[in-house]
Design goal:
Distance between the termini: 27 Å
CATH class: Alpha Beta
Strand order of the largest sheet: 1-2-3-4-5-7-6
CATH architecture: 3-Layer(aba) Sandwich
Largest sheet: 7 strands, mixed
CATH superfamily: Gcn5-related N-acetyltransferase (GNAT)
Radius of gyration: 15 Å
Shape: globular
Number of helices: 3
Strand content: 25-35%
CATH topology: Aminopeptidase
């Protein structure tokens, strides 16, 4: 029997305290512990975001947050804190999350291009979702990143 991935999009005030705890724990597990990157994850922007949650067996295993135009980047909506739990990688769940994130941006912020700050080694992954690099690579929290833009009109 195959397990169905459940994706949902919620504003901050619709998250339960348990969901918020699980989101922060997963973000810390991936970005701080796994990537050995010390940075301030809780940055005060979560209340302004839409939160995309992917669950398997009622456990959060995928996550991203969306911002409307001008919150993270002038003139752009954005997708950030994109992650897949280690146990779920290599199963195309990340592609499902990105397709859903683009769909939600297109719905919630129509006719607005989308910008991300992608880890440079994932550029080809994001190219598959119609994001294209803009500018040169740069360091963000000690990890090479590249700015990428999607026109916001088409989703995969």
């Amino acid at each position: 029997m195959s397990v169905k991935l459940h994706l949902e999009c919620k504003p901050f005030d619709a998250l339960t305290s348990i969901a918020l705890h699980d989101i922060f724990a997963l973000r810390s597990e991936v970005f701080v512990v796994e990537q050995n990157c010390i940075y301030q994850d809780i940055d005060g922007k979560d209340p302004q975001a839409l939160h995309l949650i992917g669950k398997l067996h009622n456990q959060i295993v995928l996550y991203a947050r969306l911002f409307g135009p001008d919150i993270a980047y002038p003139g752009y909506a954005s997708i950030g804190r994109i992650l897949t739990a280690f146990s779920c990688r290599g199963k195309s769940y990340g592609h499902q999350l990105m397709a859903y994130a683009i769909q939600q941006c297109t719905f919630n912020f129509p006719d607005c291009p989308i910008k991300i700050s992608a880890q440079a080694h994932l550029e080809k992954f994001y190219n598959q979702h119609r994001f294209f690099a803009t500018g040169e690579s740069y360091l963000e929290d000690g990890i090479p990143h590249i700015g990428m833009i999607h026109d916001g009109k088409h989703f995969v």
